[in-house]
Write a structure and sequence with these properties.
By secondary structure, the chain is an alpha+beta fold. The protein is built from 7 helices and 6 strands; from the N terminus they run ααααβαβαββββα. A hairpin with a 4-residue loop joins β4 and β5. The model has no long low-confidence stretch (mean pLDDT about 85).
């Protein structure tokens, strides 16, 4: 391994761990933003030495295990419970959990990402109006099968958690959906899988108590 390559890898890992700390402690949930801020803190070139998302996620999990193990376990249990309640309320729209609450990397102040799959997106807003949700409608840019698109989305606030809810077409669940063209496809989990994950999480929390 060349010295330049070793130095570049060292800088990249340092940025990954700085980005992980920003996400865990400061509540930054945009991994790209965390990497850019970390690069500036490290005094590094933002484009040449940025770590991959996977490297930041590994560093984030390591940070939680080292500094916030008990807090993280309790946080995930709480957020997944909130996710299940919202998914049950929105069951008609085939809700799927995604993002940090699904993969276990949810930091402090993390929102819950839910994806709905329906051919009637206007019914989602009507549902929220009828059930008096505290929501704000917006739009979200995604890549569907490699093609850019804009879809309806909602920011929803409850007493226990905040949600980012994106509304896709019903058939989109079978496609490769991404935030960015080169990003990884979204991972999804439906009600049954989240219930199973929550049961495992409760066992872990009770076992460590």
């Amino acid at each position: 391994m060349s010295r330049d390559h070793s130095t570049s890898r060292h800088i990249r890992l340092r940025i990954a761990h700085l980005a992980a700390r920003l996400m865990a402690v400061d509540g930054i949930d945009d991994i790209s933003l965390a990497k850019r801020k970390a690069a500036r803190q490290a005094g590094a070139n933002e484009t040449r030495n940025l770590p991959s998302n996977e490297e930041v996620e590994v560093a984030l999990h390591a940070y939680f295990q080292l500094y916030q193990a008990d807090e993280q376990a309790g946080r995930l249990e709480h957020l997944r419970t909130c996710a299940l309640e919202m998914m049950r309320a929105l069951e008609h729209f085939n809700p799927q959990l995604s993002g940090p609450v699904l993969d276990g990397s949810a930091g402090r102040y993390c929102d819950i990402d839910l994806h709905l799959f329906t051919d009637y997106p206007k019914d989602v807003e009507l549902f929220m109006l009828n059930h008096r949700f505290d929501y704000r409608q917006r739009h979200r840019h995604v890549y569907r099968g490699g093609e850019p698109d804009t879809i309806p989305a909602f920011s929803v606030a409850t007493e226990d958690a905040d949600f980012n809810i994106a509304v896709f077409a019903r058939d989109d669940l079978r496609l490769s959906l991404r935030n960015t063209l080169k990003g990884r496809p979204f991972r999804h989990a439906g009600l049954e899988l989240v219930l199973a994950m929550q049961g495992q999480q409760e066992q872990a929390v009770n076992g460590s108590g």
